[in-house]
Every structure is written in structure tokens, then in C-alpha cells.
Automatic annotation (TrEMBL):
Pfam family, any one: AA_permease_2
Transmembrane segments: 32-53, 65-85, 97-123, 163-181, 188-210, 245-267, 288-313, 333-359, 380-401, 407-426, 474-494, 506-527, 539-558, 564-582
Protein's UniProt name: Solute carrier family 7 member 3
Family according to the record: Belongs to the amino acid-polyamine-organocation (APC) superfamily. Cationic amino acid transporter (CAT) (TC 2.A.3.3) family.
Main subcellular localisation: membrane
Length: 617
């Protein structure tokens, strides 16, 4: 009896959302064109990551090698973005990585993904709002911050901000009202400000290369000392490193890349428009792929910035200060005003997907049902929009968010990894048209003999040209093992790099063993037949590209500090309390399982792998 209860509990955690023929229907308004989605993705990508984080990373973590940081972070996002593009063609629904995980790897992983996406969007919204407020304050001479610091002090190190940010609060609430009015109105505002953003960044890039000096990429300690002698406020210099193009070493590049990753999360918001895009199966992949090319702009801006200056930067407004440093005072104001315009679409890009994910989770019963209410006039998720906007506004108002940006990156990187493994699994599953005229117990009994007949020939030389339930289960198990092995490999490379570089035979043997196992399981997946179902976009080079995405994402996660992981643990404890206290019992899949079983039930093998998990338990 305890074993049966355990298996039933395991089945609940592994149950999957089945895609039904009517899933293209939606209660939301389909009003977004491909151009709207491109503007949304570009506006989100070229926001605070370029205008604010570039200065922080260049000054304290990487120096001129920030250009390499952006390339590493862009690689992670490009790999994940291609996987998102395929899922956007497969699943035209709201929810982004949450829904992709739900239909592939089960309810518990889906909730984990959605819960972390909410965290990422809330922190992203609040941090961009504070960045806008800081940029505006800097433009008028920092009078607001000085007045508030003298009259209202909240500062608790690493928790509360030095002062309450009324501008950030009001800005988030204003844009929450705009999002509640309708998606098309939000998209129009995004398009206008994105055009302004691109013009300003073009000006920054050209001006930076003209006025910059390559000498800034090869500074020495002597140059630092000369600067310190000239400046009275030497505390602004911060850590100086050892000079040269890579003043903080390889470690600085990796830490900087983990932070710069924040600059490329914009394409994720495109994936949440599945129920509001006019032609989601075509426009979502196209919007994501076009947005991914924007990493070239981030690379060029960071190059121009560090050619002008880097270790004297003001972290909150690096671009205007860089122009002031090279003696171009009038353009400083143009860039400052342009940065304010550019941060607005970035803020909208952070706010837009947040209520969509909450709405999708609430509609599935994993979060409170009231959050799934749709306004009858605007056809927007009104309750989720208002609640998420208020939470983000309060965070921007009260909290010190610099220490939370890495926490946001962990949640996003985890979501990207899950989407990559979901694409890998789904491509090798039987077609969605294959139907089984049995209930789940019969399906289990039918698949068990096939697993018992598993042979080396079936693993490496399958006869079928199309996926079968057996080959799909082989890929599912191998993909799960590969995700585990890649995580262990990343942990070893990140935490025990010194003994590896020193030639320790034990650690070298561990890495070699892991690589051999990874190669073997990858070969098994590569030999299995892929689905030939037509899609508007497919990830190329399977299974290598999704596996590369998982490796890069997990390795960047391993660069986070122990404090960031501790905060992540606290957030997950809160989430699991909600899921096990509410979601697991109110899930729509739980309601379906309580319905009387039909004599003949149809299920799509393409998206229903729960029987496999139950069998292996």
C-alpha cells in the first residue's frame, strides 16, 4: 500500500499537460503582428543590460574584456533562443518555458520553471525601473537622491535600498495601467521607443569608436596610480585588477558573462505572446530569431564604452559619464535622454510577460484561480497584471536590487536549460497524430514488454524510420541522464578548476569518465529516429545544439555566489509551499484524473510521457 501511494504521488509530480485540438483558441485578444513581437524582443534586450550593467561589469568584474562577456552570454541566449523558437512553432499558447516544461517533463518541473520566471520578471521589472529613476536623477544633478537620503533613510545592507524610490514606484504603476488597457497599445509604445533606442545606440557606437582610445584596452598599474593621484574621490575607482585587456582574468570574464546574461533575456517575452500573436506559429520563431541578432549591438556598445573609459565609470549612468570623460558634454545629454527612452521598452518587455506566465499557471490551477481572470473589454489578464505590477512597484520602491540580479539570472538560466532538454525530448517522440485507444494503465502494460525487449541493436541501429514509443522512451531516459551528467561536469569544472589545471590525476580521470558517458548517451540519442512533423522552425544540429545550450547555461549558473544560491533556495521553499499546499490539489490535471474513466480514451503520445515515469518509479 505505501508503494502504491508513492507511485500515485510520483505520477502527480510527473503528469503532463496534453495538447488538445482546441488549444489554438484563446480568451485573450490576438492583436500582435510579427513587427510587434520583434519590437518587443529588441526593446527588452537593449534596455538596462546595455545602459546600466555594461558599466558595472566593465568597472568591477571584467574591464575591457566585457566584450567577451557579452559574447559568452550571447552564445547562451542564442542557443536557448533557437530552442524557444521551435517551441513557439509547436505550442501557440501563453506561458513560455512554463508551458513547454508542462507538456514535456511534468508538472513539478513546470511549476519550478514558472515560479522562477515570475521571480526573474519581477526583479527585472524593478531593476529596470530603478535604473530609469537613477538615469533621470543623474541627468538633473542627483538632487532627488540627495534630498531623499537626507530625509528618508531605509538602508539595510544587501536588503533595503538607501532611500525609497518614488519615481520607480510611479513608473511601474503607470506602465501597469498601460498593460491593463491592452496588448496592442503597449506594443505601439514599445515600437516608438525602440526606434529611438536604436538611433541613440547607433550614435553611441559611432561616437565611441571615433573619440575612444585603444590605450584604454592596455592600461598598466602606472596608469592607475596616475589617475588616483589626480582624483580626490579615489573610492570610486573600486577594484582595478592587473591592467591590460583582461584585468580581472578568466574568472572575471566568467563572472561578468553570468551578469551580462541579464542583457539577453528579452527574447523570452516573445514566447509568452502565444495567445495574443496573430500568427504565433510563424511570428514567434521569426521574432525570436531576429531579436537574437541584437547581441551585435551589445558587443559594439560595450566596445565603444571601454574605448572611452571603464574603471572610472559611474555604474548607474555609464554612457553619459563616458562622453563627459572624453570632453563631449553636449552629446552627454542626448545620450542621457535617449537612455531614458530606451529603458522604457526594456521595462515594458520585463512587465509584459510577467502576468502572462501567472495567468497560464493560474488557469492550469497551479496558482490561485482568481489570477486567471480576463477583462471582458480589453481581453487582458487584468488581475495578474495588476497584482504583478504592484509587487514589482513595491520592490522597486523599497529594495536594493543590485544583489538580486544574479538571482534573476539563475531562474532564467534554469528555464532555458529546461526548454533545451524539452526540445531534445519532443523531437524524438512519435507524431501527435498517433493515438492510443486505451487508458493509462493499458498504456503502461503495453509499453512494458517493449522496454524488456530493449537491445543494443535497438539503441544504436534502430530499424524504424519514424519514432516509436520505445525510441521515445529511450531518448527521454538518456536526455535525463545527460542533464545530470552535464550538471556534474559543470560543477567539477567550476569548483575544482585549480586541481584540474595543475594536472591532478584523480580529477582528470573524473572529467574523462564524465565525457565518455556523455558521448555515449549522446550517440544513443543521435541514432534514434526523429519526428518528421512539419514546423515553421526547427532547431538544427540535434542533439548537439540543445546539449551545448544546457552545458553553457548550467556552467554560468555555477558562477553564482553562495549567497545567491541561498536566496534562490528561500524562493524555491516559498514556491514549493504554494505548490504542495494548493497547486497539486487544484491542478486541472488532478481534476481530469478524478473524472470517471472512459472505455476508450485518446491521448497524444507526442506529449504524454507520464506512463514512462510511473513505470520507472
Amino acid at each position: 500500500m505505501p508503494l502504491q501511494k508513492l507511485r500515485r504521488f510520483g505520477h502527480k509530480l510527473a503528469r503532463r499537460r496534453t495538447l488538445e485540438p482546441g488549444m489554438a483558441e484563446t480568451r485573450l485578444a490576438r492583436c500582435l503582428s510579427t513587427l510587434d513581437l520583434v519590437a518587443l524582443g529588441v526593446g527588452s534586450t537593449l534596455g538596462a543590460g546595455v545602459y546600466v550593467l555594461a558599466g558595472e561589469v566593465a568597472k568591477d568584474k571584467a574591464g575591457p574584456s566585457i566584450v567577451i562577456c557579452f559574447l559568452v552570454a550571447a552564445l547562451s541566449s542564442v542557443l536557448a533562443g533557437l530552442c524557444y523558437a521551435e517551441f513557439g512553432a509547436r505550442v501557440p499558447r501563453s506561458g513560455s518555458a512554463y508551458l513547454y516544461s508542462y507538456v514535456t517533463v511534468g508538472e513539478l518541473w513546470a511549476f519550478t520553471t514558472g515560479w522562477n520566471l515570475i521571480l526573474s520578471y519581477v526583479i527585472g521589472t524593478a531593476s529596470v525601473a530603478r535604473a530609469w529613476s537613477s538615469a533621470f536623477d543623474n541627468l538633473i544633478g542627483n538632487h532627488i537622491s540627495q534630498a531623499l537620503q537626507g530625509s528618508i533613510s531605509l538602508h539595510v545592507p544587501h536588503v533595503l535600498a538607501e532611500y525609497p524610490d518614488f519615481f520607480a514606484l510611479g513608473l511601474v504603476l503607470l506602465l501597469t495601467g498601460l498593460l491593463a488597457v491592452g496588448a496592442s497599445e503597449s506594443a505601439l509604445v514599445t515600437k516608438v521607443f525602440t526606434v529611438v533606442n536604436l538611433l541613440v545606440l547607433g550614435f553611441v557606437i559611432i561616437s565611441g569608436f571615433i573619440t575612444g582610445d585603444v590605450h584604454n584596452w592596455k592600461l598598466t598599474e602606472t596608469d592607475y596610480k596616475l589617475t588616483m593621484d589626480k582624483l580626490n574621490d579615489t573610492h570610486r575607482l573600486g577594484p582595478l585588477g592587473s591592467g591590460g585587456f583582461v584585468p580581472f582574468g578568466i574568472e572575471g570574464i566568467l563572472r561578468g558573462a553570468a551578469t551580462c546574461f541579464y542583457a539577453f533575456v528579452g527574447f523570452d517575452c516573445i514566447a509568452t505572446t502565444g495567445e495574443e500573436a496573430q500568427n504565433p506559429q510563424r511570428s514567434i520563431p521569426m521574432g525570436i530569431v531576429i531579436s537574437l541578432f541584437i547581441f551585435l549591438a551589445s558587443f559594439a556598445v560595450s566596445s565603444a564604452l571601454t574605448l572611452m573609459m571603464y574603471y572610472q565609470l559611474h555604474s548607474e549612468s555609464p554612457l553619459p559619464e563616458a562622453f563627459l570623460h572624453v570632453g563631449c558634454a553636449p552629446p552627454r545629454y542626448v545620450v542621457a535622454i535617449g537612455s531614458l527612452c530606451a529603458l522604457l521598452p526594456g521595462l515594458l518587455g520585463s512587465m509584459f510577460p510577467m502576468p502572462r506566465v501567472i495567468y497560464a499557471m493560474a488557469e492550469d490551477g497551479l496558482l490561485f484561480r482568481v489570477l486567471a481572470r480576463i477583462h471582458s473589454g480589453t481581453r487582458t489578464p487584468i488581475v495578474a497584471t495588476v497584482v504583478s505590477g504592484i509587487i514589482a512597484a513595491l520592490m522597486a520602491f523599497l529594495f536594493e536590487l543590485a544583489d538580486l540580479v544574479d538571482l534573476m539570472s539563475i531562474g532564467t538560466l534554469l528555464a532555458y536549460s529546461l526548454v533545451s532538454i524539452c526540445v531534445l525530448i519532443l523531437r524524438y517522440q512519435p507524431g501527435q497524430e498517433m493515438r492510443i485507444e486505451e487508458d493509462e494503465l493499458a498504456l503502461q502494460e503495453e509499453t512494458m514488454p517493449e522496454i524488456e525487449k530493449l537491445t543494443l541493436q535497438a539503441l544504436f541501429c534502430p530499424h524504424n524510420l519514424s519514432p516509436t514509443p520505445l525510441s521515445g522512451q529511450v531518448v527521454y531516459v538518456c536526455s535525463s541522464l545527460l542533464a545530470l551528467l552535464l550538471s556534474v561536469l559543470c560543477l567539477v569544472l567550476a569548483q575544482w578548476s585549480i586541481p584540474l589545471l595543475s594536472g591532478d590525476p584523480v580529477w582528470i580521470a573524473v572529467v574523462v569518465l564524465l565525457l565518455m558517458l556523455i558521448t555515449g548517451f549522446t550517440g544513443v540519442i543521435w541514432r534514434q529516429p526523429q519526428s518528421s512533423a512539419p514546423l515553421h522552425f526547427k532547431v538544427p544540429a540535434l542533439p548537439l545544439l540543445p546539449l551545448m545550450s544546457i552545458f553553457v547555461n548550467v556552467y554560468l549558473m555555477m558562477q553564482m555566489t553562495s549567497g545567491t544560491w541561498a536566496r534562490f533556495g528561500v524562493w524555491m521553499v516559498i514556491g514549493f509551499a504554494i505548490y504542495f499546499g494548493y497547486g497539486i490539489q487544484h491542478s486541472l490535471e488532478e481534476v481530469k484524473s478524478d473524472e470517471p474513466p472512459l472505455k476508450s480514451r485518446t491521448r497524444s503520445v507526442d506529449f504524454d510521457l507520464s506512463s514512462t515515469c510511473v513505470y520507472f518509479l
